[in-house]
Amino acid sequence: MIKFILIVNKLGQTRLAQYYTTGLSINKRVALENEITRRCLSRKDKECSFLEFRDLKVIYRRYASLFFLVGVDEEENELGILEFIHCLVETLDRYFENVCELDLMFNIDKAYMILDEMALNGNIIETNKKNIIAPLHIIDQVSKKLK
Amino acid sequence: MSMQVRDLIKAVRGCKTQQKIREVITRESALIRNSFRKEDKINRPRNIYKLIYIHMLGFPSEFGQLECLKLIASPSYIGKRIGYLGLSILVKENQEVLFMSTNIIRNDLSSEDRYIVGLALAALGNIGSSEMLRDLAPEIEKLMESESSYLKKKATLVAIRTIRLVPESVDRFIGKVRTLIGEKNHGVVLTGLQLVLSIVKTEPETIVKFRKLVPGLVRMLKSLINSGYSSEYDFRGTADPFLQYNILRLLRYLGEGSKKSSKLMADILTQVGTSGGITKNVEIAILYEAVLTILSIESDSKLRVTAINTLSRFLSGRHNNSKYVALNTLLKAVNTEPKSLKRHRKVIVECLKDQDISIRRRALDLVFGIMDKQNVESLTQELLDCLPKAENEFRYDITAKICTAIEKFPPNDKWQIDTLIKVLTIGGQYIRDDVSSMMTSVIGRNPDLQYYTLKKLFNILLNDRYRNQTFLQVSSWVIGEYGDILMQKSEKDGELITTTQALDLFQILLESSRTTDGTKYYILTALIKFSTRIEGHDELIKKIIKPYREHVNVELQQRACEFFLLFDYSEIRDPILDRMPVFVEKEIELEIEEEISENNNKGINYNLQENTHTIQNQINNIQNIQNIPNVQNTQNTEMNELLMLNTDTKKTQTQNKQDSLNFLKEIFNGSSSSNTNNMNNMNNNVNNNMNNNGGQDLGLDLGLGLGLGLGLGMNNQSQRQNQNQNKMQMQKQQNQNQTINQNKNQNQNQRQVQNQSQNKSQNQNQNQNQNQSKVQNQPIIVYEKNGMKIEMNFKVGNIRGAPAVMSIIKTTNSSPLLISNYLLQVAVPKTLKAQLSQPSGQNIPPNGNGSINQQLQIIKMVNQKTQLAILLRINYVINGQKIVENKEVSNIPIIF
């Protein structure tokens, strides 16, 4: 089961955070993000994409200036999650057309929607990019009409 | 007027410092709050949007929670979308607001617009509380049968959350599984599989029922593998890897414990396990899941071997990620598949040289896991080879593993000694401390190898290449202890090792600034031992020791003083510095298993710091020889050492020796007189002694210092005082002994008789105490809940002269769930002082497979009878639930 999904830039600033666990206060959350990010950023390219953090496994992958981090429980397939991250990136890329950090910042609602289409409650629901983006396109069309 | 979202983000990005960001956010938060107060409907979505951003930056956003409710209640989709987003991000923890949203969500769930339903489901899936989900379960159930696969899959995931938070609702969803899995849409099937998994985990009895799904799942997996390229769910050339590995995972649960089901899936697993390539991460992910399934279910040995071979292929590949997962999986298989694992030794050893520390660390664990008597030599050599290249923190891990290997699987003693010396020289500063005791014990019990070892150590020292402190300490102890053997045999061999050479070496080491004080203790002790081993060098040794009588380090100073004085009392010196008896490990191990002795040993460790091991050995040795039944149960540790010393030297027959030794024993009797009520003349004398400013301490220190060649730290006394007191003390002792002798009986025989009777009475005391402790040894169950049981047993004894209770706390777990993050805290009345050791672990495996042990010492601080009462606070996590409980233990049958 996925416990959290984080997107941070290489300065360690959070750009998107979705938690599937409860019981984290703001302070604890910030501390957790800081520590995990720090540990991820300090790793070298040659090291593997996994790190153990408390009772979680954190799987991370870097795309240009953005780090995608996913925290999972003991049972989850680490390599599968790596694919999931890739799938997420491809989907964001398809929707935003060459996604970059600013796209995420200025369209955080869309980014969250894409994430919600892909995973819910810590489980993966959909990995087909077309199916994921379809509802977003509909919204975009409706908002265009309204304008 | 508050700004646009875009502008806020720009403003924050423009800030150079955290302080500036804080200012911008505070200002904006105030504006948003104002806008909320004015019920500004038009800007509400924008404000919530901004709050989401503010929340992500880690600033407070609670004041927007109710506004989210207003937004999701609004009719427009755009408003609802932002509202639900706000709800799932901002309101996560606030149960009340969540509960208020239940009815709005209920309405939205029955909306005609499937995207609105989708929003509501997504919010429920991410944040739904148990109350909400219980209320809305019928709606969720209905939506799982919806025509739209978009809603179906989301509703199924909400169902999974419902099962997790409201386990009793599981029956409601069991019936839905078959249709979900039969769907065409991969998203629905995927969620269906995850639903089965969560049902199976919540109610393990349902597994039997779900085993009927196995043929269908196998078919599905087969068609996925054989389908080749299918445009809809193709992912980097592989057909829906997510679905594939989820099927494999479910098969794992269904196949475990069922031969029939395992047989059904054997073919497809073989196909997956052998056909896939290992170049792409996608392929490896599926292979990895297949391997996990093969190893967990009841597969035949051939299939298992294939699985291990596959993992070994991962190891020789170039992906670090697959190496990591392979090593982790192999580690789990160490116990079940030892034979096939050992075949891949080479690849595993190769991973020790990987650039990634996490891979090296796992490889090290694995190397150790496959170690046995046959391969220990080559594997240890591999580990030794890695040692110089490794980074410091990793070196500790490597040396620890090597030492355990040396201890556990030695093919012969010579190898043991050679390897120990190698580890000491290469990685001495990164070594766990009991290695020195291991070394001394191996040397002690192998007279044939003593000369070999000594020569080796001495030559390394001479070449001066290795100056790590642990090595210096061990070698100086060994050379001091067996110096005579070295000199005699080297003379025969024509080797050029002379006593002066050795003494010079010691002097150089003592004077070197690179030698720590801790090492100098050892060297001084080695020097004084040398004086008894080889005759004719007293003056030189004295000359070397002399300057240290004024050394700034008190401990060093005291040793030098004591040792220097010893030259004047050569009749005491010889027996005191007599050779250590051979240390028999196995018996010690047995004794250590009797936990209480371990307990006491720990006590010694605290007191004597770096010298613990030698002392420990000595105590243990002597104990073995004298066959004293576990005296440690009842006596305090210092008394213990004295007692040991006493029995050790009792062997020596000279009258003078007897005197001095008896004196030590007298002190001991004196200090324990309150216990034993053994009042007699001698004790009176000693009691007087005790009244003399710190007399008892000094006596004890002196006793230890002389007897074991290792002094306890003195309390910041100046050197002169120290020396004087020592001298006075010595004289006093002798005087006392003489008077005692005269007063008592002048007849030596009678004296011996008396000694014996005293010993006897002591033994009786011990026996009594032991009996007593046996009675108290019955463990008391102090806590029993959730399958966790905490037992305590109690023993009355002494710690550093104060009455004390020692207790072992054992925690077991008979429930089927893992108990983690276990933490025990203890409180006692103010008149007592409690000391709790580190627990042996944090997690307790389920079904009674393991326990956590912890030792508790309670010392009485006030001189009055006290009824023992303990307050425990027990913290642990079971089934994801954090539990903290207080428990008072007052039914302990001990008054002390």
UniProtKB/TrEMBL annotation, chain A:
<dbReference type="InterPro" id="IPR022775">
    <property type="entry name" value="AP_mu_sigma_su"/>
</dbReference>
<dbReference type="InterPro" id="IPR011012">
    <property type="entry name" value="Longin-like_dom_sf"/>
</dbReference>
<feature type="domain" description="AP complex mu/sigma subunit">
    <location>
        <begin position="1"/>
        <end position="141"/>
    </location>
</feature>
<keyword id="KW-0472">Membrane</keyword>
<keyword id="KW-0653">Protein transport</keyword>
<keyword id="KW-0813">Transport</keyword>
<comment type="similarity">
    <text>Belongs to the adaptor complexes small subunit family.</text>
</comment>
<dbReference type="Pfam" id="PF01217">
    <property type="entry name" value="Clat_adaptor_s"/>
</dbReference>
<dbReference type="InterPro" id="IPR016635">
    <property type="entry name" value="AP_complex_ssu"/>
</dbReference>
<protein>
    <recommendedName>
        <fullName>AP complex subunit sigma</fullName>
    </recommendedName>
</protein>
UniProtKB/TrEMBL annotation, chain B:
<dbReference type="InterPro" id="IPR011989">
    <property type="entry name" value="ARM-like"/>
</dbReference>
<dbReference type="GO" id="GO:0016192">
    <property type="term" value="P:vesicle-mediated transport"/>
</dbReference>
<keyword id="KW-0472">Membrane</keyword>
<dbReference type="InterPro" id="IPR002553">
    <property type="entry name" value="Clathrin/coatomer_adapt-like_N"/>
</dbReference>
<comment type="similarity">
    <text>Belongs to the adaptor complexes large subunit family.</text>
</comment>
<keyword id="KW-0333">Golgi apparatus</keyword>
<dbReference type="InterPro" id="IPR013041">
    <property type="entry name" value="Clathrin_app_Ig-like_sf"/>
</dbReference>
<keyword id="KW-0653">Protein transport</keyword>
<feature type="domain" description="GAE">
    <location>
        <begin position="775"/>
        <end position="893"/>
    </location>
</feature>
<protein>
    <recommendedName>
        <fullName>AP-1 complex subunit gamma</fullName>
    </recommendedName>
</protein>
<dbReference type="GO" id="GO:0030121">
    <property type="term" value="C:AP-1 adaptor complex"/>
</dbReference>
<dbReference type="InterPro" id="IPR008153">
    <property type="entry name" value="GAE_dom"/>
</dbReference>
<feature type="region of interest" description="Disordered">
    <location>
        <begin position="671"/>
        <end position="692"/>
    </location>
</feature>
<keyword id="KW-0968">Cytoplasmic vesicle</keyword>
<feature type="region of interest" description="Disordered">
    <location>
        <begin position="715"/>
        <end position="778"/>
    </location>
</feature>
<dbReference type="Pfam" id="PF01602">
    <property type="entry name" value="Adaptin_N"/>
</dbReference>
<dbReference type="InterPro" id="IPR008152">
    <property type="entry name" value="Clathrin_a/b/g-adaptin_app_Ig"/>
</dbReference>
<keyword id="KW-0813">Transport</keyword>
<dbReference type="InterPro" id="IPR017107">
    <property type="entry name" value="AP1_complex_gsu"/>
</dbReference>
<dbReference type="InterPro" id="IPR050840">
    <property type="entry name" value="Adaptor_Complx_Large_Subunit"/>
</dbReference>
<dbReference type="GO" id="GO:0006886">
    <property type="term" value="P:intracellular protein transport"/>
</dbReference>
<dbReference type="Pfam" id="PF02883">
    <property type="entry name" value="Alpha_adaptinC2"/>
</dbReference>
